[in-house]
């Protein structure tokens, strides 16, 4: 069983969220053996599931690991997109 040990708002730094982009939070889970895992999750999804710190995580943890890889790929794509936009604005 995995338990939610913390939910923290993701730090966007000096960049703002894109229009329509959901507020993301950093969720940390701990299992019965003390193993921890952290990942980003949409805050509105947690609210819809009525999940909070201390609650049991309802999903299979292996699915989280797989979605984490996809999330990393999406983040890399967005980083490349932002760099391209900044370069284009610099040329104008």
Secondary structure elements and their pairing?
Layout: E1 2-9, E2 24-31, E3 36-42, H1 43-49, H2 61-91
Antiparallel strand pairs: 1-2, 2-3
Most strands sheet: 3 strands, antiparallel
Q: How much of the polypeptide forms β-strand, as a percent range?
A: 25-35%
Bulk shape: elongated
Largest sheet, spatial ordering of strands: 1-2-3
Distance between the termini: 54 Å
Q: In terms of per-residue confidence, which ranges show pLDDT below 50 for 5 or more consecutive residues? A: none
State the helical fraction. Answer: 40-55%
Computed Rg: 16 Å
Label the structural class. Answer: alpha+beta
Number of helices: 2
Task: Describe this entry's structure for a reader.
The structure is a single chain. This protein has 92 residues and is α+β, with helices and mostly antiparallel strands. The chain has one domain (2-91). Helix content is 41%, strand content 25%. It is built from 2 helices and 3 strands, in the order βββαα. The chain has a 3-stranded antiparallel sheet with strand order 1-2-3. The termini are far apart.
Summarize the structure.
The protein is of the alpha+beta class and 92 residues long. 41% of the residues lie in helices and 25% in strands.
